[in-house]
Amino acid sequence: MKSKKSRLEKHHIEDLVGRSYMAFCVLLLIVIIISMVYFVASKGLSTFITGGVSVGEFFFGTKWAPEADTPSFGAFPFISGSFLVTLLAALIASPLSICAALFMTEIVPGWGKKLLQPVIELLAGIPSVVYGFIGLSVIVPFLRDTFPGQGIGVAAGALVLSVMILPTITSVAADALAALPQNLKESSFALGATRWQTISRVILPTTMPSIMTGVVLGMARAFGEALAVQMVIGNAPFVPKSLFESASTLTSVITLSMGNTTMGSSYNNALWSMALVLMLMTFAFVGLVRLLERRNKI
Amino acid sequence: MQFRKSWIMTLALTSVLALSACGSNNGGNNAPANAGGNNAAATNAPTETSSGSDLSGSILASGSTALQPLVEQVAEKFMDKNAGVDIQVQGGGSGTGLTQVAEKQVDIGNSDVFAEEKLKGDDAEKAAALVDHQVAVVAIAAVAHKDAGVDGLTKQQLVDIFSGKVTNWKEVGGADQKIQIINRPGSSGTRATFENFALGTKTEDLQGSIQEDSSGTVKKMIGETPGAIGYLALSYLDDSVKTLSYDGVEPSVDNVISGKYPVWAYQHMYTNGEPNETVKAFLDYIMTEEVQTADVVELGYIPALNMQVARDVEGNVTKK
């Protein structure tokens, strides 16, 4: 009787310690997240509340001149620039990543995976400043010599980003392909389908929602990437007329100007508004991933 | 099982409730004091000692990345001489430095522009409280890609180029080559200096112009891009780019000191009100002959001590 009681108590203590430690961690996380959201939102919204900039002007205005005598805060060039490089990067990277994932899981699961996996993981580990510098030293001169323009611009930014998001999409896609029930493939082969028919008619359609999750995660990364893009995109606050003309993204204008503006100035607040847009976009991407996951389960 | 589940639910509910209360509080407290961490450092700053010679205390400086290397190097030397003093130098940009010194989060705010130019409108009174210490001068030269075929430009030609009126080098006597502007971001101190003293007017960003935020990248871009024009501090100039004379005056250290070459700006170290003993000793040390002729020159700045001309906030130049 006694021994049983003491064992129970030990259990209780362990349980309590574990539970309170977890509660503390969760508490801290939630506090950090809530205060960050609050901080960015309160700073970002002040452009519209106290700064007198209309929401329409901010989102659709194309004139960005915060230091001019009659300042204007049209952030459309940055918002459109961000979406443009992100979509282009996803368009370039997705087919490559899906092929790499198929290669690793379906075509040569043995040495293909052993060789490709570390290479792709290595890509994920390279710091973004290195990507930016390679972009500036290799991609920009190449584009300058091949296409009209100065090489700098949306095309260069999208190319650099596509390499950066390659690992994200590939690893998610490879996981999705590996998790596919074996019997689906086997029944397809049993029906006399070739490998290509199996991949294109059975494997890809069934895993598409999971692969799309990877693509969206990659796009989220591309949308938030600052340094590498800023180095190659040119940073002119205009909607570019071609892919080879200097343009800007939300992240590039924030990193370019945040340190040089004083806290509380309308210029600085406008940058916070852009940070708010970035944050809301991240929420949207996360929501999209959730949606895809739910679809995947059915 | 049933019991455990309900337990977890209650816990989750209570913690969420507790957090939402706690969270909003925290957010509220954080907002005004933004970089809270710096407050502590600033408040435990210099404690006065009885004897004047052996100083002690800590100094926190932040701001301009252009001035940072100088302040860091001099701080090292100063700390070697005064064991009791601890100096920390952070970057962050001129705007950050001025904001933080105005809010007393740091002891010294480094800036490449006059505080009055950054703290305008509602913040103007903040600028009035700041005391300026001009420790060095940085001169800026217009530079072009080597194949532009031009040795110098006049003020009007520069204005035409940077406002987009002139788009080909042949219009200013150079090669038949499209001009590509490599600019600094609108908030940059270097750009403000160039616009104020070389162009005499603010310019708007042009479609297709390139903006880079570090001098190293600007130099690389100008060196590589055919037809490029931009501007760099004198310490960055070398053979990879073509340095342009301004209205016929070569951008050289001697011409800046004598006042012939006008495109230069002070490097400021601002304190909030008169500095305390330790901070003052540090600022005085930077102005000594020993530092001005060695460290300042070595790092590519022009000693403020040598300047034969002085300039005020409005840009009026007077002979010293």
UniProtKB/TrEMBL annotation, chain B:
- InterPro entries from the UniProt entry: PBP_domain, Phos-bd, Phosphate_ABC_transporter
Where mainly found?
A: membrane
* Gene3D superfamilies per UniProt: Periplasmic binding protein-like II
Q: Which GO terms describe its biological process?
A: phosphate ion transport
**UniProtKB keywords:** Cell membrane, Lipoprotein, Membrane, Palmitate, Phosphate transport, Signal, Transport
Assembly and partners are described as:
The complex is composed of two ATP-binding proteins (PstB), two transmembrane proteins (PstC and PstA) and a solute-binding protein (PstS).
**Protein name as catalogued:** Phosphate-binding protein
Organism the protein comes from: Paenibacillus albidus
